[in-house]
């Protein structure tokens, strides 16, 4: 009988980042090099304004072009798709409309990508930070 083992890789921090009206990358890009099946995120909006959009971009190889993998209503219960294992926020908000002083959590399937990054924007300005953890099924 075969057994799936799960390896949790180190937790990483998404540095506190000032976000404005254009998409801004939160922290550094995460190089997963095809070694992660799923990435868990916790995003905190520690500023005073709600987010107006949120997205995850991926890169298929080091010389590739960033592409938008998930954005907007993909993070809401009604808009969730097969690439998100779970998504919820504190209060009534999800990552794409995360209110001031609120937290959103979600799991994203990223098998096969080289790198990914998290981006947010708001109508005025706010500060966003977070944490994540990669996991791989062996």
Order of helices and strands: EEEEEEEEEE
Distance between the termini: 14 Å
Q: Give the helix level as a range of percent.
A: under 10%
Q: Largest sheet, described in full? A: 5 strands, antiparallel
CATH class: Mainly Beta
Into how many domains do the coordinates divide?
1
DSSP helical segment count: 0
Rg, nearest Å: 15 Å
CATH hierarchy: architecture: Sandwich
- Percent strand: over 45%
Structural commentary:
With 138 residues, the chain is an all-beta fold. The chain has one domain: Sandwich (Jelly Rolls), CATH 2.60.120. Helices cover 0% and strands 54% of the residues. The protein has no helices and ten strands. It has a five-stranded antiparallel beta sheet, with no helix packed on it. Strands 2, 3, 5, 6 and 9 form a five-stranded antiparallel beta sheet that branches. A hairpin with a 7-residue loop joins strand 5 and strand 6. The two termini are 14 Å apart. The mean pLDDT is 80.
């Amino acid at each position: 009988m075969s057994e799936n083992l799960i390896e949790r890789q180190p937790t990483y921090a998404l540095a506190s980042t000032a976000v404005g009206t254009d998409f801004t990358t939160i922290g550094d890009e995460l190089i997963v090099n095809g070694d992660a099946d799923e990435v868990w995120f916790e995003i905190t909006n520690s500023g005073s304004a709600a987010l107006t959009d949120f997205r995850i971009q991926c890169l298929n190889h080091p010389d590739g072009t960033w592409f938008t993998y998930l954005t907007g209503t993909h993070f809401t219960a009604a808009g969730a798709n097969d690439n998100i294992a779970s998504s919820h926020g504190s209060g009534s908000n999800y990552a794409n409309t995360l209110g001031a002083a609120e937290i959103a959590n979600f799991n994203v399937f990223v098998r096969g990508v080289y790198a990914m990054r998290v981006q947010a924007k708001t109508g005025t300005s706010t500060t966003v930070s977070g944490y994540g953890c990669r996991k791989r099924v062996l």
